[in-house]
Amino acid sequence: MRNKAAWRGALICLAVVLALGAALVSCSKPKHTAEEMRAVLGELLPKSAELNEIYFGDGLPTNRDENAVRAFYESFDTDIAAISYEPVDPACGYETVDDIKAATLEVFTEEYAEFLFDRAFTGISALFDEGTDTEHRTTAVYAMYLEQDGFLTKRVNLKDDAIPLGRTYDLDSLEVLRENETGVQVRLKSFFGGEPSVDVEMWLTETENGWRLDSPTY
């Protein structure tokens, strides 16, 4: 009886080990192939490049229609020189903050988009002397885009905060590194100014509305 129990215990242990091994193999093997992810990034990367220009570059083009610009400035009851925003050209395809947000959510995850939204539409402020009688908050970076009297506007000194853009990617070099319940991590070669640059790793998440980037692409 003792031998039978020992054999039974050994068989159970062996079954558990085999099951765990199979589970580990199935978890480590990516479900999505490099070919699939190339197709996904082939659609998302060009859209992200346009958004990078909006959030990190010179920003949206400004309106050159004299009548529209005049109407915009006349909507302010102040000196023109004190106005720090200028109207965006509606011909660019973006007429409201919601238009920019909608385009962003077609490319990036909601989590990454929130970071972009805070930077672009809220601005960045710093808290000083927290918890004291002199506690105060000072704006460090003003919002990039605001809506004013029916106009979508851009901060006039946006170029001062711009970063170098223009990174491109070699989709043929893409490889899937790993994936889990949150998404797929890929790596691919990049170029900057036409010259080879660093290899870039990105996370992508499959949502109910399709694949979205959860990483910057600039």
Major β-sheet annotation: 4 strands, antiparallel
Strand element count = 9
Q: Averaged pLDDT, please? A: 82
Supply the helix-strand structural class: alpha+beta
- Total helix count? 5
Shape: elongated
The value of Rg in angstroms is 26 Å
Instruction: Tell me the strand order in the biggest sheet.
Output: 6-7-8-9
Helix content: 25-40%
Succession of helices and strands: HHHEHHEEEEEEEE
Q: What percentage of the residues does DSSP assign to strands (E)?
A: 25-35%
Give the termini separation. Answer: 69 Å
> Spans with pLDDT under 50 lasting ≥5 residues?
1-7, 9-28
What does this structure look like?
The chain is of the alpha+beta class and 218 residues long. It has a domain at 32-57 and 163-218. Helices cover 37% and strands 29% of the residues. It has five helices and nine strands. It has helices at 2-28, 34-56, 66-74, 97-105, 110-122; strands spanning 85-87, 124-128, 136-141, 145-148, 151-155, 168-180, 183-192, 195-207, 210-213. The chain has a four-stranded antiparallel beta sheet, covered by helices on one side. The chain has a three-stranded antiparallel beta sheet with strand order 1-5-4. β6 and β7 (183-192) form a beta hairpin. The longest helix is centred in the N-terminal third of the chain and has 27 residues, at 2-28. It starts with a helix and ends in a 5-residue tail after the last strand. The model is unreliable at 1-7 and 9-28 (pLDDT under 50).
